[in-house]
Structure formats: C-alpha cells, structure tokens
Amino acid sequence: xxxxxxxxxxxxxxxxxxxxxxxxxxxxxxxxxxxxxxxxxxxxxxxxxxxxxxxxxxxxxxxxxxxxxxxxxxxxxx
Length: 78
Fold this sequence. Notes:
Layout: H1 8-12, E1 15-19, H2 26-33, E2 41-44, E3 48-50, E4 53-62, E5 66-74
Antiparallel strand pairs: 1-2, 2-4, 3-4, 4-5
C-alpha cells in the first residue's frame, strides 16, 4: 500500500461523499472527537495513480474540530 500524505492540492480538490446522519460512523465520531452530528463530513481526494494502481484517500472532518481517520482505498474498475 502506498505511503502518501494528503497534500494541499488534494484537500483543495476533495469532494464530500457523505454528511451528517448519512455518515454511518457519525455518532462514534461525535463521541470520540466532539462537534455536532450535522456538521461532520466524509470526504474523498481525487483519484491518484501510484504504482500502476488508482487510489483515493477518505477521511472524516469537521471545521473547528479537525480531520480524522484518513484511509487510503484502492479504486476498483467498474
């Protein structure tokens, strides 16, 4: 698995893939990190190619609380 960090460009080009109650883990996020359910976002980086494979970073964030649980996922061909 690639060892890469989120860059400013990735963050600027990120997209919201779920927010608030649509996030399955939102109650756990509030319990662990604080904030309001309605303000939590699950985001994804743009796809990037590394080692001949396509990956996206996924993470949870809330403005004023922070960015947490960054994961890298391999994008499967559909």
